[in-house]
Amino acid sequence: MNLAPTQPPGPSGIVLLPLSRDRYIINKPMNKILLLVAFIAAIIGCSKPARRYHLNAEVISVEPPRALIVVKHGEIPGLMPAMTMQYSVADPKQIENLRPGDKITADLVVRDNKGQLENITLVTKAIGS
Ligand SMILES: [Cu+2]
Asked: What's the pLDDT tens digit per position in 9-55?
C-alpha cells in the first residue's frame, strides 16, 4: 500500500499532510464525546430540584441590559434575613419599567447556590415615578 502523501514537499522540505481529511476523521468521535458530556451535565443539572421562595421587596436600582436588579427585601423565612442585595433576573423584560422605590413581589429561585428572580410583579408604583 502506498501511504505517501499526494502533496509535494513544502518550501522548507517538510511534507504537508492532507490535514482537512484527518481532522474530519479525528473530530467525529470527539463531537460525540462532547455531546455526551453536555448531556450528562444537563441531567445532573436537572436532577437537583430548585428551591423557591416568595419575596416582597422595594426596588433600589435596575439594570435591564445586564438582567440585574438591586432590591431591599424583607425576611425570607428559612433562607436569609431582610437585606439589600443584587439579584439576577430570569427575564430582563420584567424589570424594564421598574423604578427605584417601586414595591414588587417575586419568586426567588435558588439553583446550585445561585439565586435568580422570576415572576417579578409590580405591587405599588413609587410616588412620582
Ligand atoms: Cu438577600
From this structure: 555 555 555 555 555 555 667 777 777 777 666 655 555 789 999 99
For cell 499526494, the residue is: 6
Residue 28 shares a structural domain with residue 73: no
* CA 60 / ligand 1 centre spacing (Å): 13
87: left (phi over 0), alpha (psi -120 to 50) or beta: beta
Ligand 1 ion: residues within 5 Å (CB): 80, 83, 85
Query: Distance, CA 83 to ligand 1 centroid (Å)?
Result: 5
42 alpha carbon – ligand 1 mean position (Å): 28
Does the residue 129 lie in any domain?
no
What is the span of the domain harbouring residue 41? 17-47
Collapse the DSSP code of 73 into the 3-class scheme (helix H, G, I; strand E, B; otherwise coil) and give the result: strand
* Residue 9: inside a domain: no
In terms of pTM, does the model score above 0.70? no
